[in-house]
Amino acid sequence: METDLKKKIALACKLTDHDQIKRMNELHQTLFKKVARAVEHPTSYELIFNQSDNAMIADLTEFIKFERQCCPWLVFHLTFQPEEGPISVGMGNSEETKQMVYLDMELDKLQQPVSK
Fold it and tell me: Which of 22, 23, 43, 70 is most buried when burial is the number of CB atoms within 10 A of its CB?
């Protein structure tokens, strides 16, 4: 099942420009090292970042922009907590998209997600 989903993700990706793909991969590598925790919801994952400076906001916005081009079927929620609190990115809106997010974002390499 995991292999089938990875193939489906690869086929669904709409990014074709080499430089864009390279930058998206760079964002994946840098942003996911900054995840404080991942929260598993019934149909999505939420990545929480404690850092909330302008550079983090710019990187997350760019990440979402690329992911929307790559995976136009994916729903994103960007949440800013008050007073410079944590920023979170929610991704997914169904069991299938949740599984795709898990595989595509390689969440298995993060600490075990916290179920909610």
Answer: 70
Full-model pTM:
0.76
Handedness of CA 63, 28, 102, 87 (dihedral sign): negative
**Largest distance between two CA atoms of the chain:** 43
Which residues have a Cβ under 8 Å from the Cβ of 88 and sit 6 or more positions away?
Answer: 39, 46, 47, 48, 49, 77, 78, 79, 81
Query: Beta strand pairing status for 76-80 and 87-91?
Result: antiparallel
Question: Phi then psi for 103, rounded to 5 degrees?
Answer: -75, -45
Report the CATH architecture of 2-115.
Roll (3.10)
Map out the domains of the chain as residue ranges. 2-115
